[in-house]
Protein: ComF family protein
Amino acid sequence: MLGCYDTQMEMPVFQLLKRSGAGFLDLLLPPRCPSCKAIVARDGSFCAPCWSRLHFVTAPMCACCGLPFPYSAGDGALCGACAQTPPPFDRARAALVYNGASAGLVLALKHGDRTGLARIMAGMMARAAAPMLAERPLLVPVPLHAARLRTRRFNQAALLAARIARRADLPVLAAALARVRDTPISRSMSRRQRAENVRGAIRVRPGAAARIRGAHVLLVDDVMTTGATAEACARALRRAGAKRIDIVTFARVTHDTVEQG
Structure:
């Protein structure tokens, strides 16, 4: 009967049924690699070739922006850009280097409607941002302009923020920031042009100002390229009184990578 134990497996019958049901489902819909969709052993896992192409951002790195260094420069070392002009945020971290493999996942989420990837990507981001998450920040996604949101139907940064918040049991303020100007796509722009492109384009919504004032904010986005958008968001949050501003992205462009989308 239900709840009795199988003498050989030492497992409740309902657990056996659950496992056999899952096994039957795997036969019909086997787990697939999130990148190439090859059959894999477990849901959410990558096949070996795709996993080998994911380049994780690990130490040594800039203590501020998280740019990976080719060799250790000591604790608290800054990259040249952060040393010369400190950014308006405190720390930025990314899970992966932006290359062909990580770009494929980003583009599949944003433009391929594969919203299920947000769970996998958020898991990687949570590990990269573990020290930040331990400080119990308020999660805020980078906003999309209303026109682009209507076209895409969802904000990928908001999906990632929601997944991280659920995983870490943290608050998320999805509508804290507004993109008040529909900025042109910055794919072919220089760093200076990108900064000018987003100047004044992002503001804290009046209804969110009280939550932002004095808060430790963790800004969430899918990719950091030059950091222009993240910095524009950080400046808006700083003007609203945020006490500390950290950033986590799924991927980031480095000196050794070329932007692909």
The chain has one domain: 51-252.
